[in-house]
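Appendix B. Raw example, untouched.
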Amino acid sequence: MRTMQADTIAAIATAPGEAGVGMLRISGARAIEVADAVFRAASGKRLKDAETQRVLYGHVVDEEGAPIDEVLALVMRAPHSYTREDVVELSCHGGSIVLRRVLGRVLAAGARSAERGEFTKRAFLSGRLDLSQAQAVMEIVSARTDRALRVAEGHLAGHFSGKIHAMRQKCLGLIAHLEAAIDFPEDEIDDVVIDEVERAVAQLRQEIRALLATAHTGRILRDGLPTAIVGKPNVGKSSLMNALLREERAIVTDIPGTTRDSIEEYADIGGVPLRIIDTAGIRETDDAVERIGVEKARGYIERAALVLALFDGAQPLGAEDEEILSLVAGRPALLLLTKSDLPPVTTPAALAAAYARCAGGDAAAPTILAISAREEQGLSALAAAIGDFAGTGSGLEEGSFVSDERSAALLRAADAQLGAALKTIGAGLSVDFISIDLRAAWEKLGEITGETVGEDIIDEIFSKFCIGK
């Protein structure tokens, strides 16, 4: 357990804006004393005399004793609280003015403003959460789909960090085994023991790589999948975006060039949070504004993690279509033949042949789907194809996904150290060198859960949290 800070902190813990209820959180050794200085219970009871997990009704008052707001005060005594410190939560009306006035009174009574993520940081420092679980708190707050929420909840429950702890224990057992031989050199280590260590290290690498295989999906579920919808004008890009969002977000007309800039929105597609970018139709144009939009569309093709390239199935392929095929060739893309409710002119086979010509025959054959946004035909197949791309069909326990780049980088570093240990064994070097490699892997795994991480890294991680969390 790390050293706790002695001061008492306070912050508004709900989002700004008008709401039915707004909550202010106070945590620290003087939390109850500070709250008692500003709160008057209708019953006359003091918060210092309240039992833990008890709610009192009353008012927060100003310096003269005049009511500021009618509130409920919840007392949580250490260690039975989020931070394992004394905590008081004041549930107020949700207006920003009243919450700021209440916070001002609490700060004047002896608390200080909490830093970003400081409540969760204190939960980590007290040992209530490890670092991976602490990061899951913000994943829950920012989850955009039910699937992303389930992954974050699994992380908070300790499913992912449990696997890391188990791997660290295996590492530590091997280190202890080898270091015992170093301490007692008269007992020579035989080849059987070295073979056992080698097999155990190889097994650990398999476990790490199985986790790393989930990083692509975990990152998508956490941050969303940047997806560009591209095609020539009037091919159905805005209609598709509206169908995916299930609302009329983009303007749909028969006039070419209606979308001149990019529109960006999030959509839940089969549990995958899609960050959809509807781009301007790609074509030659003399309109200066539209030309800027077309250039931005080309840029989005380069940067998107997935491209939905649309082609009018009721029309023959033209030069603009060929240009789009050239732009998406070799990139992660789904080719969509739109307007499937009309008599087909361009078939999937014709589109595949055109793609092969534009890609030079080297790129793998893409997935081609026929859809009609207007009639909602083929959208289920599109959602399934997006799910396949994101890897959300994995059978792994959802809480075991690697969902951030920091954890993935540390797992890769631990794997590299274990690989070095195998090379050391293969070279027949002393057990001292094997132990050094294993300890380096053990420390890298410990950085994921926060057991071997420096204060500077901890501060950086929690600085990305919102104030009040």
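End of appendix B.
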